[in-house]
Amino acid sequence: MDKLRALIVDDSSVMRKIVERSLRQSGLDIAQVFEAGNGAEGLAALQKNKVDLILCDINMPVMDGLEFVKKLAGVENAKGVPVVMITTEGSEGHVVKALSAGARGYIRKPFTPEQVKEHVLPVLESKPLEPKP
Amino acid sequence: MTSSHLAPHSARGREHWLPILQQAIQEVFELMLACSLEVPTEAPPELGLDTTSIVGLAGELCGILTVRCSARTAARMAARMLGTDLERAGPEKWDAIGEICNMVAGNFKNKIAGLGDGCMLSAPAVITGADYRLHAQVDDEVRTVLLFEGEPVVLSLEIHR
Lengths: 133, 161
Description:
The structure holds two protein chains of two kinds. By secondary structure, chain A is α/β, with parallel strands linked by helices.
């Protein structure tokens, strides 16, 4: 597997750091991590950067995670990029909404690094990485 | 806890909410801070608890969930969450205690039948200073005091009319 570039979208800087640490602890070869504090910032980050994986919270100001995931369909750099939601909203209804919007995985907060690995590796393995320019 | 084991959501069922609330915060500390909260053998003095994180609940259950501790305790929590020292974690303490409150609220409502989808959470906010009053039409309160590294942490769920 090539080195990964990941985008972490969460309004908590502490949570973004924890998610990044969990990704690195999962054994993935992380080349670069981009951070965004809400969906709008996430879309802006994707205008400038290609990534292989997106991890995204749901409840965020400005643009929430579900709207962000829906808007990814129109973003060139997000085509085929798997999205895993990481959120406190753990009900079945929220899971269905997230998966219907286009997310490929769902992690409930609180979580362990092992749970991040368990949910992220399958979605990455199901999507071959494309060469980056 | 699977959906088949969810506790009932009714005024009568609230008598069972205290252990569920305690379990919700224990899970957050065990998974995100790699430690457990202790149950004090006697009620600790609640002095100097000048940091209060607050998350609002609306919908099937209306109220607020608060986590209250000292600023130093909040910084220690941030250090444990980030795996760093107290000095580096200090600036992140407001964000950390807010996220803890948010996760406890989410974890709690997901354990009560009908609240997972039927109750929305606000973004967390943090109040600094111990001398304040919050005025609301409180119908009921579920409250517990636990110890984090020997220091008190007050967890309260105020249920509004």
